[in-house]
């Protein structure tokens, strides 16, 4: 397959960057999605979904003026137009007669950082911030309320404001997720508004279990337990954006947390699945749309699905935020102590709930564990202009200053490789054709 320089590109900062691969490289797949019709406005999609919920009555029929409502909204690590979707939901609640004072909007952070007042206003607008009560979830708050137990017997606690509300609505996004199969659904409640210890228990127990993985729902214990917790904690209704390959909203589903989520997953598969004939020696993939902190390594999951064992992954990462020294040092220490068997050591840490990054957030520990597992199986060349070479190498990556240097390194490792190029790595579900 030929790849002229004016046709082959990756997406960086939301823009196309064109390039030419080396002449001796054999391009198997350029995972560009076919052009689709223009998107309908997200607000229109949300309004239509709310008028035709799946597996549920409309909110206007479920609620009355005497009800109290908690709306759980995903944080800034997700790209959905949260303000637009929230406005559509609030319009529906207004039609049901629910007073503004009876509505609380909870940012479902899980163990992530809270949104600043400036971020809240930028995301939702000053009018909504002034009109409704917005709070950041705190996974270590002393007043979290017990709701159920995990399979490990660990008690799950959730945000008190959400627990005390008479009705709970979750606003999330559906896209491939490396452990849960797909985002959205019950994840907005667990881990979204849960306590640190139960999130840690669940993630460490199920991340490397058989059945857990990108795009997997059936037989996935990670997903199954999240679904069960959401049901036990009474997540009543969801509104989920189905993200397309450009990280825009391709569809919106609303209704029952299981039925609507499954319908959204089928929509997502139709939008972002891409077939690959076989595995490649080298896979070039971008982190788009992920660019904040540890999120940038998530595309290593789809890349590992289509790369030959022992092959090379070139990760072109946009990066904002920070990779704190304890995060980088945890990688470095782990490589020094367990370089001969990274995977075995990761499994040992996770099975014993032992944080790799002590005193670190769970998302940082998950990023470290998942990355080390991929580093155990593949060589990873990191191209990230905003990450210093020293940091990248301490994390166990082979560092390249730009694509040209990465191509030279790839050629030295495999002179005539078969190659996949995935220009948008964060929103893709690879499907290997049957032999």
Can you put this structure into words, describing what you see?
By secondary structure, this protein is α/β, with parallel strands linked by helices. The protein has two domains: 9-30 and 277-432, 2-enoyl-CoA Hydratase, Chain A, domain 1, CATH 3.90.226.30; 42-271, 3-Layer(aba) Sandwich (Rossmann fold). 34% of the residues lie in helices and 23% in strands. The protein has 15 helices and 20 strands. The chain has helices at residues 42-51, 59-62, 82-96, 117-124, 126-131, 160-164, 196-206, 221-232, 259-272, 300-305, 325-338, 342-351, 362-377, 389-394, 403-413, and strands spanning 9-12, 15-18, 26-30, 69-74, 103-108, 133-136, 145-149, 155-158, 167-174, 176-177, 181-182, 237-243, 249-255, 273-276, 280-286, 307-316, 379-383, 398-400, 418-422, 429-432. The strands form six sheets. Strands 3-19-15-16-17-18 form a six-stranded parallel beta sheet, sandwiched between helices. Strands 6-5-4-9-12-13 form a six-stranded mixed beta sheet, sandwiched between helices. A two-stranded antiparallel sheet has the order 1-2. Helix 12 (342-351) packs antiparallel against helix 13 (362-377). Mean pLDDT is 92; it is low at 1-6.
